[in-house]
Amino acid sequence: MRGVGLYLLVGALIVGTGLMQGWNTALLILNMGLVSAIMALGVNLQWGIAGLFNIGVMGFVALGGLAAVIVSMPPTTEAWAAGGWQIVGGLAMGAATVVAAVFVWKRAPAQWRIWGTVAVVIAGFVLYRQVMPGGMAAVEAVNPAGTGYLGGLGLPVLIAWPAGGLLAAGAAWIIGKTALGLRADYLAIATLGIAEIIIAVLKNEDWLSRGVKNVIGIPRPVPYEVELQANPDFVATAEGFGLTPILASSLWVKLSYTMLFAAVLIVLLVLAQAALKSPWGRMMRAIRDNEVAAEAMGKDVKGRHLQIFILGSAICGLAGAMMTTLDGQLTPGTYQPLRFTFLIWVMVIVGGSGNNFGAVLGGILIWWLWVQVEPIGGWLLSVVSAGLPDGSLVQERLLAGAPHMRYLTMGLVLIFVLRFAPRGLIPER
Amino acid sequence: MTDILNALVVLANFVLIPATAYGAQLALGALGVTLIYGILRFSNFAHGDTMAFGAMVTILGTWGLQSAGITGGPLPTALIALPLGIAATVLLLLATDRFVYRFHRAAGSPPTMFVIVSLGVTFVMNAIVRFIIGVDDQRFADGERFVIRAREFREMTGLDEGLAIKTTQVLTLVVAAICVAALFWFLQKTRTGKSMRAYSDNEDLALLSGINPERVVRVTWLIVAVLATVAGVLYGLDKSFKPFTYFQLLLPIFAAAIVGGLGNPVGAILGGFVIAFAEVTITYPLKKVLGYLMPESLEPDGLVQLLSTDYKFAVSFVILIVVLLIKPTGLMKGQTA
Amino acid sequence: EGHAEEVKLGIILGYTGPIESLAGHMADGAEEAMSEVTESGLLLGGATVTPVRADTGCIDNALATSNTERLIAEGISGIVGGDCSGVTGAMLQNVAIPNGMVMVSPSATSPALTTVEDNDLFFRTAPSDAREGEVMTEVLMDRGIESVALTYTNNDYGKGLADAFQTAFEAAGGEVTISTAHEDGKADYSAEVGALSAAGGDILVVAGYLDQGGLGIIRAALDTGAYDQFVLPGGMVGDSIVENVGADLNGSFGQIAGSGGDGAAKMTELGEAGGYDGTSPYTPESYDAAALIMLAMQAAGSMDPADYGPMITSVANAPGEEIYPGELAKALQILADGGEIDYVGGSAVELIGPGESAGTYREIEVKDGAIETVGFR
Amino acid sequence: MITVETLVKSFGGFKAVDGASLTIAEGSITGLIGPNGAGKTTLFNVIAGNLKPTSGRVLMQGEDITGLPPHELFHKGLLRTFQIAHEFSSMSVRENLMMVPAAQTGETIWKAWLSRGRIREEERALAQKADEVLDFLTISHLAEEKAGNLSGGQKKLLELGRTMMVDARIVFLDEVGAGVNRTLLGTISDAIQRLNRERGYTFCVIEHDMDFIGKLCDPVIVMAEGHVLAEGKASEIMQNEDVIEAYLGTGLKNKVAAQA
Amino acid sequence: MTGDEAEPMLIGDMMTGGYGKGADILHECTIAVDAGQIAVIVGPNGAGKSTAMKAVFGMLTVREGAVRLDGEDITALTPQDRVAKGMAFVPQTSNIFTSMTVEENLEMGAFLRRDGIAQTMEQIYELFPILREKRRQAAGELSGGQRQQVAVGRALMTEPRVLMLDEPTAGVSPIVMDELFDRIIEVARTGISILMVEQNARQALEIADKGYVLVQGRNAYTGTGAELMADDEVRRSFLGG
Ligand SMILES: Nc1ncnc2c1ncn2[C@@H]1O[C@H](COP(=O)(O)OP(=O)(O)OP(=O)(O)O)[C@@H](O)[C@H]1O
Ligand SMILES: Nc1ncnc2c1ncn2[C@@H]1O[C@H](COP(=O)(O)OP(=O)(O)OP(=O)(O)O)[C@@H](O)[C@H]1O
Ligand SMILES: [Mg+2]
Ligand SMILES: [Mg+2]
User: Fold this and answer.
1) Of A105, A224, B268, D46, which is the most buried if we count CB atoms within 10 A?
2) Facing A192 at nearest CB: one of B104, B123, B251
């Protein structure tokens, strides 16, 4: 009941935004809210249901973004010719080294094991360094200001969404294999670090993602506003509704995104609910409660942890690809833990961890707050400081601090929600 | 011979000394994090911003002192203003505890709840600091900046390479050593220290032994305030004060605390140095050193660098993960469960 | 008369996040221009210009687009912003272009933005990296320095400038011993400085920001004695760096966009009077961005972006009377009288090709703890 | 059924299990007793895969199972209970039992999405079985209670109940009796006998209550200081001088009598 | 203090209460012990024995009824204050500091004492020799029975006037159990009152001055130890035949 009320409240907030600040703003907030809700769903799966403390969300979101580039951007043919195959060779060499090292570690007789593995790794590294940098330099030299990277596959961007999920899942598999044995706090910091490493790769491997030079102009799954504005049919229809072409086109584009995102969210939510309520969900809760006992009762704790870690991360990757599509660009410099990891956590906890509907609610609500706190806070501050003498130091400080109201408010919201509803707005069961 | 000396001086100047100083800085921060984890049993994300708050008050005090004409002579004036910063931080932390954490303690919330709550506190402290002092870079270091300058060293020894040691580096190292020794002694040997450990181990049973939990919590925050302010001020003196960097510091600090073993003060120190040395050594190109050591014909063309500095903090995390895989509780045994 | 009582301009910058310490000064610069215009009472027959600030977080595309969308709903007629290239691209593609809004960015330098189909809506007052790389090469070559170490702030500005410089410098026969990035806002730069020192080089080129990692690098380099001379590109030139580093910086040199007039000096004066740092990076560019929008409005006689957008290039470039900071009233009057202006401003604005600045550069050197202009290029 | 060969498990320098060798015969109810700290629980932990042995082997019907993880051993029919109860505290008592059986269709995630009907049936059967077990343990009124809220003894019962949810082949019980009411313990002991006789479970039971051991177990193995001290029928063991000295003591009764 | 019927040293009088906002678990339950005497509580699992002990120690709110020590009403005191008044308690579960050494555990028992504790500690090591051997080891690494000994040792370190034990013998070997009961008798002789819950009911009742049988949170039978042992109904239903 409380849940329904809260969802109505969120709906009212969005509608209110539409009435006060225009429907474009409202839809934009809703769209990003939906993406956030999907990320929150992924985190909730890992934390709320399996008790995995993953604060590397940012890394998986970024991988999703990378997928959008790799899938949808046109390939840079000159770059492929210049050094693309050399890079592929280098990567293959790297992969072969890892495989060989693992093989030696597992199969070699005990006395050779350590030295054999070390030798394989060093040899592989040397070879890799022989091949890779040349290819990278060649690719990056191809019109560095415009391309300077390999480009993508030139496929429709919608394919990038599942691809983003897969890419994130692959990374999660590797990470999970190494780090999942760690205790809660340690796993947390390990994932945090791995996310930073992923971002570092995106920022520094220009041949892959143009690094900090950003990839912009990623194709859209929906039409461009200017195209619509130039389309007489569309203009006519818009005028039929009494809308200007500009307004109608931007609303239509945003609505298309809303529908796409909502469809994805609903599918995921249905699947997540079904899983949670099944014996699978019961088993996951048992594992969260007491790993030792679950293991003794025949549950493969490690395997299950890996499974849910991959699932949750894949969802974050999917959301990341969606977000990059919405932005129309990949900007590795914009990935910061505060925004892409901790904010998602706030959504999950405020919404109610362990409860999928709570996570979704938290996603949309907190995103709305994140955007709206600044104007509200600025207005509040100007009211407060209006009473102060003009130009006084305090007034100046307060007004200059308006943008920081967002942090203040997020902090206070978090603290108050946890104080008065410690298990979130819509608690688990 | 001079070649070897030169090589040694280069290494000392660019690897040993900076890494030691950086390590001590991380260690001081990690000490606070580790103490909160050890006694109150949660990872406090607000620690970076607590450091910023303590440093900020100290800076305001320093400015006050300086405008009153009081200085610390060769030592930074900020050291005189330190008690003010500590006092303010103590008040802030006690107030935070009273209004935020106490409820969750009483409700028996799980550690992760505290972590998330501390995230909320981080946001709030973040804003407070920015409201009061703004977002800009603030410099407040005065006094003698160097113990020895690179140029002076070159002139003194006649070597080609210089060696510089900063006052703040020495100060940080000394303070870190004192802090860890004092903390270790306090926790292991004193009644209050033991009662704090008992409390962290089993709160209900501590109650049954007549330990006053609120007192334990107060003492913990008190020590944390001291550690955070000292760390924040020393860091600010050595580099500069900017609120944003204090939040960024959190990551290496946590890495240090965890590598060392969360909850273990000696581990925090060790972890700080491991992280700092790893970052600096693995990314240091050996070109110059080898240039001195090798005969001319064999001098390297390339930089002889294992890893580009782009990935320097990837190094600390790789180390972190490797350490955890081999010793799941950190180098020094951290707390379990 | 009186048909345009209020013109709202958005100032959408990263007031929180990694460059929060720059954004405040930038906004102050832009607001300075606006209040100057308002006080003159000359814009479109006496309109007041109201600034509206909104945050981009510098790194938060979604926040930036939402905020831009919100300001558009509030009825702004132009945007000064965004700052970081990532969010600028997002704002441009997702909000400004669809809504036909003019956007003048004071600081986004990414070459990638050049290629966006912007329908004459997007301009930048920040100089292009390619040009600065060439100028810096000339400065170095003239001083006979042929081997440098290079470090850049790890974003599109730093990377772009570093690439451009390295290409130009090596083409001119110079050697870059190492080119390595540094992240802004980090705790410690010993590793970077160690690597830069080990690689060798006669001088260190720091393509960063003077109150971010760039400052940290210089401090650490001086402290360890790794380098005692630095080349300072635009992002590093400002009074605060001399204050912060002190006498050790004497002898370092560099270049910053600025023309024969004393635009930058005027900015400094204005800043002192207005209580902000007029030398902070991109503050003059912000002033100029705001000024360009308003001057173009005056020239077009309209506050509709579709009308004044195409005028921006013409007010920025010759022919016409040169306009410096603090002279906006004069410029408005000239335009009102049907004359022509060539806006120079605080950063020597000259728009070329797809709406980018290609100004002249002022060569500077630090002498006796002050930045002195030693020539123009 | 289970053979332990010269097993050693050391913590740091301390050998908790020090060369223990023993056999648990198929179909028996073997008692394992010994002073506190003799290494009984550690031995269980090694056999059940919770700890890796320092050296030595564990065989299950001739197959080497040393170091296999607990969940794999569970699938081979090896179950254990914990001396310190390990309940799933935030789940209901019934759910604590229902989660036990392996190979539930609904535990595979895509089947949880696809085979809804089959899962519903399985669940109904499971719930019924769980309720039977709860009835037997006299705690059916607590079926919906969170397991974390049970009393100390009730948690012990739940531990035992979990082993009754599946067809185990060998069950290791670590002090099921500690903290359990003696009347109820009698019932439990009957149940163990019945499971042993009717379903062919093999049991290995650690317990300090000699009445319980005496009535139920044959043979009884005595451990002390990490190795096997004696083995035999309960009645023999209780007469064994070594065992009396190390473990049983001369009894409280005489003392009370003497002091009175 | 009035009346001819002397008030016992410690009494939980007609206590009614439960955990948090949940249903009542105790119903007008009365538990008392006199100076130098041993009182034993027995009953089926979940009867509320531990709950009654916690109620007496102030670890849950007693909604009706009162707890009095030496006639003084201490119902409102915190557990800590009760420790200061000379009460000690060994809970049934999590009753040791697992990360601290055995010796530190014992020291913590004596936290409120200001006099020398060496002698008491020596006595405890004599009582439980294994603890002396393991005194530098973390208590969490001990075996189940050893932990139980640490727990009892910790409580004894307080040198209390009233000692409350919740199933002190669970998991300890017969030989240690004998010692433990021995020691409990001895302790009682020195004038300390002992209130304990036991499932080893027959042995416990043998040494008890007073016995309580609790069933579903109510006093079902009360009498001297011997009386309860003699009651067939009690024997069959609660003491295991
Ligand atoms: N993790 C550990 N680290 C160090 N020593 C340990 C550890 N676990 C157990 N021990 C030691 O090993 C010995 C055997 O312990 P174990 O738990 O097997 O005894 P037990 O026979 O089950 O005793 P009890 O009847 O009291 O349960 C004890 O002396 C204990 O102190
Ligand atoms: N923390 C709690 N919250 C809610 N209910 C509880 C809690 N602890 C115990 N109970 C309930 O209170 C009742 C009495 O529990 P208590 O622990 O007092 O039993 P007991 O007589 O000590 O049993 P045992 O002999 O098994 O230890 C039980 O039904 C139990 O489910
Ligand atoms: Mg045991
Ligand atoms: Mg009990």
Assistant:
1) B268
2) B251
C283-300 vs C20-40: helix crossing angle, rounded to 10: 30
User: Is the same domain home to A266 and A408?
Assistant: yes
CA distance A209 to C126: 25
Residue A428 domain-assigned (yes or no): no
Q: Give every strand in the sheet of D220-224, ordered side by side.
A: D78-80, D170-174, D202-206, D29-33, D220-224, D227-232
Q: Is A7 on the interface with B (CB under 8 A)?
A: no
Do A356 and A292 fall within a single domain? yes
- Specify the higher pLDDT residue, A416 or B337: A416
Structure tokens at A417: 């929600």
> Is the CATH code 3.40.50.300 the one for domain E1-86+164-171+195-241?
yes
> What value does the mean pLDDT of chain D take?
88
- For residue A290, the enclosing domain spans 2-75+151-420
Q: Considering the domain boundaries, does residue A186 fall inside one?
A: yes
Last residue of a domain, one of A132, A150, A168: A150
pLDDT in tens, B194-211: 899 899 888 889 988 888
State the CATH number of the domain containing residue A378: 1.10.3470
What average pLDDT does this structure show over E199-212?
89
Which structure tokens are listed for B88?
Answer: 């303010």
Report helix angle B213-238 to B17-40, nearest 10. Answer: 160
Q: Are residues A206 and A89 in the same domain?
A: no
Domain total in chain A: 2
Q: Is residue A163 part of a domain?
A: yes
Token reading at C12: 């959408």
Instruction: Kindly report, residue by residue over D212-243, the tens digit of the pLDDT.
Output: 999 999 899 999 999 999 999 988 888 888 88
CA torsion angle D2 D8 D9 D11 (round to 10): 170
Mean pLDDT of chain C: 86
Mean pLDDT on D22-34: 93
d(CA A213, CA E196): 74
Strand ranges inside A58-164, DSSP E: none
C78, C293 Cβ separation under 8 angstroms: yes
Report yes or no on chains E and C touching (3+ CB pairs under 8 A): no
The protein residue whose alpha carbon is closest to atom 2 in ligand 2 is D149
Confidence band for D255, pLDDT divided at 50, 70 and 90: very low
Amino acid identity of D156? Answer: K
Q: Which chain A residue shows the shortest CA-CA distance from B100? A: A415
Q: With an 8 Å Cβ cutoff, are D183 and E177 in contact?
A: no
User: Are A34 and A108 found together in one domain?
Assistant: no
Q: In this complex, how many residue pairs, one in chain D and one in chain E, have their CB atoms less than 8 Å apart?
A: 131
| pLDDT tens per residue, range E57-79 | 998 888 999 999 999 999 999 88
Number of continuous H segments (helices) and E segments (strands) in chain A: 20, 2
DSSP assignment of D178-243 equals: TTS-HHHHHHHHHHHHHHHHHS--EEEEE-S-HHHHHHH-BSEEEEETTEEEEEE-HHHHHH-HHH
Which ligand is located closest to the Cα atom of residue D151?
Answer: 2
Same domain? For A284 and A155 the reply is yes
Same domain, A301 and A416: yes
Report the predicted TM-score, pTM, of the whole model to 2 decimal places.
0.88
Please report, as a single letter, which amino acid is at residue D76: K
pLDDT at E1: 41
- CB atoms A226 and C98 under 8 Å: yes
End-to-end Cα spacing for chain C:
44
- Burial class (CB within 10 angstroms; exposed 0-12, middle 13-18, buried 19+) of B68: exposed
**Residue of A398, A415, A420 to mutate, testing the B interface (most B Cβ within 10 Å of its Cβ):** A415
**pLDDT tens track for D59-85:** 999 999 998 999 999 999 999 998 888
| Alpha helices (runs of H) in D57-209, residue ranges in sequence order | 70-75, 93-98, 109-114, 116-136, 152-163, 182-198
Q: Within this chain, do residues A358 and A337 fall inside the same structural domain, yes or no?
A: yes
Looking at the fold, whether A218 and A289 belong to one and the same domain comes out as: yes
Query: Which domain-ending residue is among A118, A150, A182?
Result: A150
